[in-house]
Design a protein that fits this description.
The structure holds 2 protein chains of 2 kinds. By secondary structure, chain A is mainly α. Helices cover 65% and strands 5% of the residues of chain A. In chain A, α10 runs antiparallel to α15, α14 packs antiparallel against α15 and α17 packs antiparallel against α18. The chains are: A mainly alpha, B mainly alpha.
Chain lengths: 430, 458
């Protein structure tokens, strides 16, 4: 170390130092790149979902004058709801379109013309007539729902340069739709159906109400089971359990269950709840039980953390003024820990809301049109609905899937926001 | 009728509480003895005896009532002689349950009608006896407990020990769940291994369970060599790990040592959002966005890419696991004593040298534990692979081909109505058992790594 003045050596040291600093910068840059990659993928995901899904929040209708012919709509002629419900609503709708485009002739052209409209147009008309029986015999301007393919064209999602045989909208239909748009007879409006109706084979009629209800009923069962049992188990393990083998075994079990793949819980539900106990398939009750078993470890672990965060002085003060152990815990420790337990429970519920695989195993994958009203009705849930629509061949279902994802993520944001707010509000004051 | 009994329970509980408390107050007012416990404790004591036994009865009925009723109907059908030679009582029962009351043939519908009749009768008789038992238990418990209310009764201690027992039972739900999982998986898997030898399952290289639909078909036994399924799982897990380990570890290092407070405040929640997005959404992303893109890019490079490829599923799964790896690695790195970092820096090492040569080696057991947990996560992940990886059981290491995984196969074999005695259905449970034990082993290994690491520095 005598030759610090040796210029060659200094140069070498300099070069080495530069190399080391370069490595330093490279290392840091790779860290930034890693984070950018992960976060970038997240934004790509959210971006595509929003891009795909927003379309489904809007539906297209053709506003046309419809002649409400008494003979077709009111077969008994007494304007009673029973008679009106049996009316033939397909023909006024068809006639309205034919009156607008009298040039369509021949079977195929007429069928193509009728294909512009959804069957939903008839249902809407029936609802209108049932609500306004006095309109029968007159001609009214009604919005008629376009079919999914016509809707895609109106949106501009159909490439007309493609050969006619390779697209769902024929040249004649394109011409009709263009004519309707040119006369301002096509309206785009908020798609209320998306939130009020159940699933359907027709993309333009399919809605999320059934899935939202199913998710709600399932989560209700999950909450009613996992919250009390989880709190009780956490209380026992944190406050009452003796230090022995059995307690250790319970703790090991809970930690392991937290890491068991969710599909295994589905197998448990299938083998025990459905085949052994004979509970109904596809029911929110069974789904809720399975998800409760799955979320239980989360609730217990969060509960124990919240209980152990309560300072011992509170417990000791209660014991000191003569409360029993149980009273000290139930009256003083548990209320202090409750916000923390609730936060953990909400996070567990949010995870249960997004869970799909175990629910598929117990049959919540069925195509269900009716809206579920009780936990034993067959139902589906939001994530399963996303899975079903992602698999559907019609292109319009992809927009529905995007919308379903937006709704699901919206619920998750609300739940996690509530958890964060709760944590902020009741943050420990010790 | 039974539903009405559930509605009666709260009333019964309220009645018990009020009667018990009033009795205690009366006793205290009459004599000049002082009560052992507060009046409300006597109320709670009576409440437990009045509502507890009936509740237990109702729970028992809810769990086993259906089985008992159907057992009754099956036994009566067997005895009735209405069954044809090739008919079995449980088949008729399941047809009735499914709403298929009459198929073809008079004997069949006769049997069905008989089953429906007996089911109705059994429900009526058993329902009545449950109601009678309910009334008996409620009245008996209520009056007995009320008669026990004396000033000397240590009501608070009784109530508290009942509560402790309840808390203990709640904590045993975890054990019951584990037993349920292991029990049901083992039971069905053993039935499967009675049909297919374990050697064939674990070492066979052909997987085509779909041929086992009908017993009289050619090749009806199906092929249950699970090696291609395991290989597919490994391939996808490998791709996912190749993404999530470097990205997750580098992200953790960046957050722990380089990022400022403000950057950390932004990035950490964003990473948590990645973990919070449901896997079905990631799956849709992989299947509908990434898969087709990868295919287009691959074709422009002259590669033959399936639109459902292992690569798309693995990539997305890798990103999904990044926050998991990064938060666990972050914990491990933060647990290394600060003095080691400062010592190394004081010796003139740059920060990156310190991290690579001091901090990461010191935190290695914890980081390895994180990796093992991530692997277990990836193996058990279902929706992404179901939606994006395909179902073809191929023995390949080519990430551009469609492969299948254990979880996908479980799903494919079980979704939809299945008879529970075919090898096809049971194979899903054998796969599930394998999955359970592999993830269990990984978790235990990870736990022991982490624990060893903790001992080192505590």
């Amino acid at each position: 170390m005598t030759s610090s003045s040796d210029p060659q050596r200094l140069d070498r040291a300099d070069a080495r130092l530069r190399r080391r600093y370069r490595a330093e910068r490279l290392f840091q840059a790779s860290g930034v790149a890693a984070i950018a990659f992960a976060v970038g993928t997240l934004f790509l995901l959210l971006g595509t979902v929003v891009y795909q899904g927003t379309g489904a929040f809007v539906e297209s209708v053709a506003v046309l004058p419809v002649a409400l012919d008494a003979g077709a709509l009111d077969p008994d002629g007494d304007r009673s709801p029973e008679s009106l419900a049996r009316g033939n609503y397909a023909s006024p709708v068809r006639e309205a379109l034919r009156a607008r485009f009298p040039e369509a002739s021949g079977r195929r052209e007429k069928r193509a013309l009728a294909g512009l409209l959804s069957v939903g147009a008839e249902y809407d008309l029936r609802d209108f007539v049932l609500a306004h029986p006095e309109a029968i015999g007159t001609t009214v301007e009604r919005p008629l729902l376009l079919s999914d393919d016509a809707d895609l064209y109106v949106r501009g999602d159909v490439d007309v340069d493609v050969d006619e045989s390779d697209r769902k909208v024929s040249d004649a239909q394109v011409a009709w739709l263009d004519a309707l748009v040119a006369r301002g007879q096509v309206e785009r409006r908020f798609n209320r159906r998306l939130f009020t109706s159940g699933d359907s084979r027709e993309p333009e009629l399919a809605g999320l109400q059934g899935a939202i209800r199913g998710s709600f009923l399932t989560l209700l069962v999950t909450l009613l089971l996992s919250f009390p049992i989880g709190v009780a188990a956490a209380l026992y393990l944190e406050e009452f359990a003796p230090r022995n083998r059995l307690t250790d075994f319970v703790e090991v079990n809970i930690n392991n269950l937290a890491a068991v793949p969710s599909i295994v819980f589905g197998l448990l539900g299938l083998a025990v709840l459905l085949n052994f106990l004979g509970l109904p398939r596809s029911a929110p009750l069974v789904g809720g039980i399975v998800l409760a078993l799955m979320t239980l470890p989360t609730v217990i672990i969060a509960g124990r953390a919240a209980l152990s965060a309560v300072p011992p002085s509170i417990r000791e003060a209660a014991l000191g003024v003569g409360a029993s152990h149980v009273q000290a815990v139930l009256h003083h420790v548990l209320p202090q820990a409750l916000p923390g337990i609730l936060t953990g429970t909400i996070i567990g519920m949010a995870r249960a809301l997004g869970e799909t695989a175990p629910l598929l195993m117990i049959g919540m994958i069925a195509f269900i049109v009716d809206l579920p009203t009780s936990p034993t009705d067959p139902a589906t849930v939001l994530p399963v609905q996303i899975y079903l629509w992602s698999d559907a061949p019609e292109r319009a279902f992809q927009a529905r899937m995007g919308a379903a994802i937006i709704v699901l993520l919206g619920f998750l944001v609300v739940m996690n926001g509530a958890a964060v707010a709760l944590r902020r509000r009741f943050e420990s004051r010790y | 009728m039974i539903e009405a009994l559930w509605g009666l329970l709260p009333l019964l509980a309220g009645l018990g509480f009020v009667l018990g408390r009033r009795r205690a107050e009366q006793l205290a007012a009459e004599g000049d003895v002082s009560l052992n416990s507060l009046p409300q404790h006597y109320g709670q004591f009576v409440l437990l005896w009045a509502a507890g036994p009936p509740l237990a009865l109702l729970l028992l009925w809810a769990l086993s009532g259906g089985t008992i009723v159907e057992g009754w109907a099956a036994a009566s059908l067997d005895a009735s002689g209405l069954l044809g030679v090739d008919q079995r009582a449980d088949h008729v029962l399941s047809e009735v349950r499914g709403g298929l009351s009459s198929l073809d043939g008079a004997a069949l519908s006769e049997a069905h009608a008989h089953v429906e009749r007996t089911l109705d009768r059994a429900r009526q008789v058993l329902g009545l006896s449950v109601a009678a038992g309910f009334a008996l238990l409620a009245a008996g418990g209520l009056s007995w407990a009320r008669s026990r209310v004396t000033p000397g009764l240590r009501a608070r201690n009784r109530v508290e020990s009942a509560l402790r027992a309840g808390l203990f039972l709640s904590s045993c739900v975890a054990i019951a769940t584990t037993i349920g999982i292991v029990g049901s998986l083992l039971f069905e898997a053993i039935r499967f291994f009675g049909l297919v030898s374990p050697a064939e399952f674990f070492f066979g290289t052909e997987w085509s369970p779909q041929t086992a639909l009908r017993a009289d078909q050619v090749g009806s036994s199906g092929a249950f060599g699970a090696v291609p399924v395991f290989a597919g799982t490994l391939l996808i897990t490998g791709i996912a790990m190749a993404i999530s380990i470097p990205v997750g570890l580098m992200a953790a290092i960046q957050l722990a040592f380089y990022a400022g407070d403000r950057a950390r405040a932004w990035v950490k929640p964003l990473l948590e959002v990645i973990a919070g997005i449901p896997t079905v959404v990631w799956g849709a992303f992989a299947a509908l966005v990434l898969g087709p893109r990868i295919r287009v890019i691959g074709e422009s490079l002259g590669l033959d890419v399936a639109s459902e490829s292992a690569l798309a599923a693995g990539l997305v799964m890798g990103v999904m696991i990044v926050p998991f790896v990064s938060s666990l690695s972050d914990d491990a790195l933060n647990a290394v004593p600060r003095s080691m970092l400062e010592g190394s820096l004081a010796m003139g090492a740059t920060l990156s040298e310190t991290i690579r040569k001091v901090m990461v080696p010191a935190a290695l057991p914890g980081i390895v534990g994180a990796f093992l947990l991530a692997v277990s996560r990836a193996i058990g992940e279902t929706m992404i692979v179901v939606m994006a990886a395909g179902q073809a059981a191929r023995l390949t290491a080519n990430p551009f081909e469609a492969v299948t995984t254990v979880t996908v196969q479980i799903m494919m074999l079980l979704v939809g109505d299945q008879e529970f005695d075919s090898a096809k259905t049971l194979a899903a449970f054998a796969l599930g058992l394998t999955l359970f034990f592999v993830t269990l082993a990984l978790n235990l290994a990870a736990l022991s790594f982490v624990r060893r690491f903790r001992e080192q520095y505590d």
